């Protein structure tokens, strides 16, 4: 057995272990279940049509949310001006789920244990299993594609890097009912068909390529550009001769081009037929207030932001970008489509205003374009293998990159240190490789100023125990000490302002602290009580830092929490300490305000 076949088997084994044993979402409930959040939206077509026969009204949705809680609220469809509900997401995933849904429904109908309601265990398991099988099929075809152009060892390493060293593992095995893993598979198959079509132009290949392009577009409409892959594959568009050759080829096989287009449109028309039936309109923009910034795409953030950017969570893909140079040198005909399509795909993906693709692990939308990026990655691996010494440090770095991706995959589930939509650069690097939360590390989610050592020669410059009762605010929590402390609530959001006269040169650091008591912990970081410190000069803020104290508190916990503040070199005349509470019901009581200064 050759090495790439062994690598494929290892990848499949790890996918099965990750999705079936390490973190089996199909066994979980609520928003951690397989059919939850966006997946619940992709999937809703099927129970609405085949079980409840209510695809226009979705009257079953409230009872399903109450029983299974796939999301906190019903946002899988919206009320159209026609009076009917229209699904938010397109129907491509529902088409892919359909055979597995049918098996699950037959299972539930013949079971005394599981209700045939579309959301019980048989449906959760079969949707997971079906998507896993599609992803495995995609890896199988990707290996066939890569072996067309690269040697066996380069293909083996490329498969291992992609499947185990990127966020592909997350979206092909754990959260695999999202669009990305199955689109990865269809892109792999489409590339294989494109290669075969240009070697041997047959109707069946054109039909298959057209149907897959239609399914890809039906799954994510912006990816209708996938038709460029079979149309342009193997061409060199950087010179007139290459353009002419491609034009002449399609002129000769124009019937195949028409056939491919018809098949693609037939599959894509499923969405338009649904829209017409549900709303009376052929075209419906179901994302409502969400859209694209075509003139200001979020390219830098999409690539490098620690808040769900691509490279920080799949750093091994840096080598795929470098590999575009290696692939260009190897073959411009092979290089053209991966380079052109990836650039166009990235532009569209990062022009989306919600460029972080909420709840994702490192730009999940990039997973489906990995089959194309696998080609430059394999080219890079093959070129490195031809060197004598360079390959060893490069492979060591690749292993480190793969570890980083696996580490954050673990932290996104069992470790708990990956906090989606909250990550910062300093938090990322301070917790990377650790497996235990500390208060100081958590503070890096909000502030850059964290002094981890024990201050020496500190001097207390302010202390206020609030024992005179003047700052007391009524709430359900008892005072922290005597009559002292105040409470921030939904009605009383702002604390008193605590002013400390201070001038530059007094010290390098200030540490402010207070005693906090929470009622119920607030988990939504947008709604957490904020502890602010700022240096002021007159009416102008010279510098300001904050931490969200609910991050450091549990239900009912009484705790002293401090915040460090590196004093600015600019002129300032005082320090202000205050607390602010967003518009939420989670009360928090605060007392014993204290400040000290120190140099180290």
Please supply descriptive tags for the structure shown above.
600 residues, alpha+beta, Jelly Rolls, five-stranded antiparallel β-sheet, four-stranded antiparallel β-sheet, 20 helices, 11 strands
Describe the structure in your own words.
This protein is 47% helix and 12% strand. Strands 3, 4, 6, 9 and 11 form a 5-stranded antiparallel β-sheet that branches. A 4-stranded antiparallel β-sheet has the order 5-10-7-8, with no helix packed on it. It has a two-stranded antiparallel sheet with strand order 1-2. Helix 15 packs across helix 17 and helix 16 packs across helix 17. The protein is built from 20 helices and 11 strands. The radius of gyration is 28 Å and the shape is globular. The chain has 2 domains: 413 residues, no CATH class; 140 residues, Sandwich (Jelly Rolls), CATH 2.60.120.260. With 600 residues, the protein is of the alpha+beta class. The mean pLDDT is 94.
How many separate domains make up the residues?
Answer: 2
Beta-strand residue fraction: 5-15%
Shape: globular
What characterizes the major β-sheet? 5 strands, antiparallel
Q: Note poorly predicted spans.
A: none
The tally of helices reads 20
Mean pLDDT: 94
End-to-end Cα distance, whole Å, is 61 Å
Helix content: 40-55%
Class inferred from helices and paired strands: alpha+beta
Radius of gyration over all CA atoms, rounded: 28 Å
The quaternary state of the protein chains shown equals single chain
């Amino acid at each position: 057995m050759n090495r790439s076949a062994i690598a494929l088997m290892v990848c499949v084994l790890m996918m099965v272990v990750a999705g079936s044993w390490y973190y089996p979402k199909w066994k979980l409930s609520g928003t951690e279940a397989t059919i939850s959040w966006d997946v619940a939206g992709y999937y809703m077509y099927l129970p609405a049509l085949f079980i409840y026969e209510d695809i226009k009204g979705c009257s079953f949705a409230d009872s399903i949310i109450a029983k299974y809680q796939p999301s906190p609220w019903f946002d899988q469809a919206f009320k159209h001006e026609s009076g009917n509900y229209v699904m938010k997401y397109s129907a491509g995933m529902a088409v892919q789920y359909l055979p597995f849904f049918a098996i699950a429904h037959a299972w539930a109908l013949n079971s005394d244990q599981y209700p045939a309601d579309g959301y019980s265990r048989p449906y959760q398991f079969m949707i997971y299993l079906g998507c896993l099988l599609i992803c495995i099929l995609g890896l199988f075809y990707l290996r066939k594609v890569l072996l067309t152009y690269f040697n066996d060892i380069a293909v083996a390493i490329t498969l291992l890097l992609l499947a185990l060293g990127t966020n592909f593992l997350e979206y092909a095995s754990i959260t695999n009912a999202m669009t990305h893993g199955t689109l990865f598979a269809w892109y792999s198959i489409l590339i294989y068909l494109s290669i075969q079509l240009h070697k041997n132009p047959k109707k069946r290949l054109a039909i298959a390529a057209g149907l897959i392009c239609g399914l890809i577009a039906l799954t994510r409409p912006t990816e209708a550009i996938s038709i460029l892959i079979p149309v342009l594959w193997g061409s060199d568009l950087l010179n007139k001769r290459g353009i002419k050759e491609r034009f002449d080829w399609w002129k000769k096989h124009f019937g195949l081009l028409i056939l491919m287009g018809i098949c693609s449109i037939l599959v894509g028309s499923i969405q338009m037929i649904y829209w017409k039936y549900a709303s009376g309109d052929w075209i419906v923009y179901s994302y409502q207030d969400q859209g694209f910034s075509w003139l200001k795409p979020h390219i830098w953030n999409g690539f490098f932001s620690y808040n769900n950017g691509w490279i920080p969570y799949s750093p091994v893909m840096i080598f795929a970008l470098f590999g575009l140079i290696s692939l260009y040198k190897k073959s411009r005909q092979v290089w053209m489509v991966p380079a052109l399509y990836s650039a166009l795909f990235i532009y569209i993906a990062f022009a989306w205003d919600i460029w972080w693709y909420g709840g994702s692990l490192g730009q999940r939308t990039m997973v489906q374009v990995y089959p194309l990026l696998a080609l430059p990655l394999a080219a890079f691996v093959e070129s490195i293998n031809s060197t004598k010494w360079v390959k060893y440090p490069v492979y060591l770095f690749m292993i480190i990159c793969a570890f980083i991706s696996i580490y954050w995959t673990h932290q996104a589930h069992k470790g708990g240190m990956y906090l989606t939509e909250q990550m910062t650069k300093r938090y990322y690097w301070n917790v990377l490789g650790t497996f235990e939360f500390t208060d100081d590390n958590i503070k890096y989610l909000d502030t850059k100023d964290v002094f981890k050592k024990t201050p020496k020669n500190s001097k207390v410059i302010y202390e206020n125990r609030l024992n005179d009762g003047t700052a007391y605010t009524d709430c359900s929590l008892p005072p922290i000490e005597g009559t002292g402390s105040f409470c921030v609530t939904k009605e009383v959001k702002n604390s008193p302002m605590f002013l400390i006269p201070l001038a530059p040169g007094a010290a390098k650091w200030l540490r402010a602290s207070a005693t906090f008591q929470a009622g119920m912990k607030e988990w939504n970081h947008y709604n957490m009580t904020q502890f602010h410190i700022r240096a002021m000069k007159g009416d102008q803020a010279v510098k300001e830092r904050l931490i969200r104290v609910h991050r450091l508190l549990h239900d009912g916990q009484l705790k002293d929490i401090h915040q460090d503040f590196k004093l600015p070199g600019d002129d300032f005349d005082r320090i202000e300490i205050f607390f602010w509470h967003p518009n939420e019901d989670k009360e928090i009581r605060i007392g014993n305000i204290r400040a000290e200064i120190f140099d180290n």
